[in-house]
Fold each of these.
Amino acid sequence: MIENIKAALLGVAVGDALGVPVEFKSRIALSNNSLTDMIGFGTHDQKPGTWSDDSSLTFCLAEALTEEFDLQNLGRKFVQWYYEKYWTPRGRVFDIGIATREAIFRLEAGVTPEFAGGTDEDSNGNGSLMRILPLLFYIHQKPVEERYFWTKQASSLTHGHIRSVVSCFYYLEFARHLLLKKEPIEIYHQLQVDIPRFLRTISIADNEMTHFDRLFHSNIYEFQESEIESSGYVLHTLEASIWSLMTTSNYTEAVLKAINLGKDTDTTGAVTGGLAGIYYGFEGIPTHWINSLARKDDILDLAQRMSLK
């Protein structure tokens, strides 16, 4: 399992770091000057290999999973990151989403973790999806009801709306099948049956289910790039990550395709990179990208400690 954990954590961090320098650039701008390699500076004026809040909060969750998993502990780590620079790449928080920041304020004020995240429809940014992948290694052998329960709990620290929860659940179910060495196209069509069927058993409202129609009822891998959005909306990020994985043939192609969609490039890169890392394995991530990462050895140590839990 250590190799899968390394691939997941580094897959997220590399995709994130690739996207940081071009965050907020438009698709047109990137089509004229596509990202092809790890660069630095740009949008956030950070050195090459610097990852953002996506990876920081991913590593906070991973750290919580090296201990007795507890939402209070996870919430404390999020607060530590924001206020004390815990699990930052270079000792500074330089990027954070509005909903995540507000949730951390509530956590710091003592709000119960599962109620800290926003639950209104406008609170459906990609801030829980971007950090959820380590939970896979805690839940992958549990029954589906428990997998959903823990996904809902972990998402709700920052994003409690059902759409964010279901997006995280879909993503982790896809990743879980990748762990089982299934092919993405097989997984995609299996989830079109399995996930709607499960969601009906827990009475998810039909009007929420319709937001997932493109994943549940269409072949998103046949869509043109112009049909894929890449904003900070959770469904845009989820769809873009699945599309990027399914329309490429290696880790490098997948993350670069995701990032060159533009806009929320670090998160689209991170979310795609997590899936691609698991699918193509640690050896599939370019070594020079891994070696350029801030705190590479700390990330590898975290993966090792996760694998021992």
Note: Residues 1 and 17 are 24 Å apart (CA to CA).
Amino acid sequence: MIGAVDVGGTKIVVGVADQDGRLLAQDRFATLPERGPNVVIGEVIAMLNALARGQGEALTAVGVGCVGPLDLPNGAIMNPPNFPGWSYVPLRQPLEKALGVPVRLDNDANAAALAEYRLGAGRGAEIMVYTTISTGIGGGIVVDGRLLHGVGGGAGEFGHQTIRADGPRCGCGNRGCLEVLASGTAIVAAAKRAIADGRGAGILEQAGPAGLHAGHVAHAAAAGDAAAVEIWGQAVEALAIGLGNVVTTLAPDRLVLGGGVAQTGDLLLLPLREALARHVRMVPVDRVDIRIAEHVAEAGIYGAIAVGLQA
């Protein structure tokens, strides 16, 4: 039985799965990293043991998907922004010592990519590119069943390619990154600016009292709201340029889109396919199978399962 741990800044999800990747049980707790790594890791170990006992089976391996940056060769987490005081914390070693099974660690985007390749929309692909379009934009590349990590584990950072050299400043320090132009965060920020300027009534109508997200902009654009059409169109165009660069470089047979923005389905897929056809000339883009990820809502835990299956 595989143990799985999805380590996020606000919550940690722990699960157990069978050897076919089927999730059998899961539980979660608030990360509260200020408690310190020993306490948090101890809670992970206790929860894994409790879930395994509940299934009446022993763990054979554990996969961990984690926010970065990570030291992958040594299985450690290195000073992530939402983990104050966690300057360099080994994760693999204490888990292996306590549980007595192999533990494998990868960043959350790579883990989600592997989950889609093994357990989702990437099944059967030779070269699969996965990108998550959510709060930020990240991704992973799987070639013949193997994740590409690259120098420092940096492969798949699609969100930090430059789309507009004179564009707005990104959180990474660069200007005009794909993430600052087309992430869910960027789309919502643009919508709020439009609303503050007295535009985007259709966006407000879609959002209602629940709070604004990128899907509201997509649906308002489909309904003809002028501000939403402009904002959604600019985001799709930026995505087409960024993903077009990736397609031209790697010529994948499968492109899988995850994250909250991808949950808009055809509102994203249809214009994105059209825009990719304009931007990609050296690769037969019509032969690139573009799909929405199967594990959008639970990408983290299924990513950890997929990592564990390789341990």
Note: The mean pLDDT is 95.
Amino acid sequence: MTNVGELYVCRICGNAVEIVVAGSGKLVCCGQPMEIVEDED
């Protein structure tokens, strides 16, 4: 499940996605699941 405001990145090509509408499922790019970028506060 994704949440509004989360940022995901593809570790292969560098594409980034920010969630503006939450939904179920997983984000996939270059055949691999995208990874959530954690806050570095």
Note: Residues 12 and 30 are 7 Å apart (CA to CA).
Amino acid sequence: MIETSIRIDADKPENAIAVALCTDSRKRDQVWEHLNELEFLAETAGAIVQEKVVQERPRADVGTVIGRGKVQELKEIIEEHEASLVIFDDDLTPAQARNLEKALEVKVLDRSGIILDIFAARARSSEARVQVELAQLEYLLPRLSRMWTHLSKQWGGVGTKGPGETQIETDRRIVRNRITQLKQRLEKVAVQKQTQRKGRENLKRFALAGYTNAGKSTLMNRLTDSGVLVENKLFATLDTTVRKIALPEGREVLLSDTVGFIRKLPAHLVASFRSTLAEIIEADVILHVIDVSHPLFDEHMESVDKTLKSLGADAIPTLLVFNKIDALEFDEDLSELRAQYPDACFVSAAKDIGIDELLNTMTELCDMGTSTLEYFFPWSAAGETSQIYGVGDVLKREDKDDGIYITARIDNKDKHIASERVLTVN
């Protein structure tokens, strides 16, 4: 994974200023909430936000987003706090970032840049590091006109063959070649993971999805005792964890935990992590975990729904799991939520509240789209029983004088298998 100039030195925190544009005064409270989240992102990356600035304009300035006058005011704030970093809540065009850095004379990042920085710091597995590097390069490619000197150090003298545009084009060619290599590596990983998933096709698959810091990993640990890292930081988990769990009736299912989502999640980052997020895409049921104690949890739900739709997972059956109910201040709030979402589960993963209800609901969801069938195989066709074991959940088997009797739960899509051996259907 490359080290880019957007990396923040966690051992020496930088003073930062967070900036947002408000184009609708009615949404000013929402803009401030987004800024608070941006501050949390900055802290996770290792920066200290000294001041938050909101600029109200009918529309973004084409050159600097916030306008020339606000840029001058921002420069004074930077000098006052001795800041070396400015973070914008919305994505900047390469031209805007270049103009702002020239005017402010400090490093300028947008939300995508800070998220990439956090992912780069948290990537541990080789796959995650490849995914992050790919996302970084796709983010940097259109910005090379202001960053080629840094990349020339990274790549050992790149761009020294000629001045100006020759250097930039050389860097672009190197970056494009590297992007191609990384995509090929991820394609191989995707094939390997697909092969692994085929080995467990007879088990129902549940996938945890949710806004970052919603408590997915805590819930994963509660259900599986898997020891997944839990931190009060954004994006604590990047790699997928898959564990087998037993539901109340003894049925085994698979549960996976993946990277959390966030509003304005960079599209190229989602694309880079597609092989990791395949556990969600190919799940039988998605458990959408929501931090119900957050004042804007409904906006978080919307952000997750949009991301799931972008992945093509919006048609997968989804169970809403409202987490952290122990943090609700009033009992009436929980009662209203139960009335509004009657099919949801309400839990506190940290306090072990509502977990039995969740497991029972998961058991019921396992039966969706399945049938319980009783089969008879004469001893002359005993070898055919492997078909049932391969696709179904065998509930009972009796070996009698005339043959083998099997009761199994089968997905409706597989009912055609050994259908001539079916005695009864429940």
Note: Confidence is low (pLDDT under 50) at residues 1-10, 146-164.
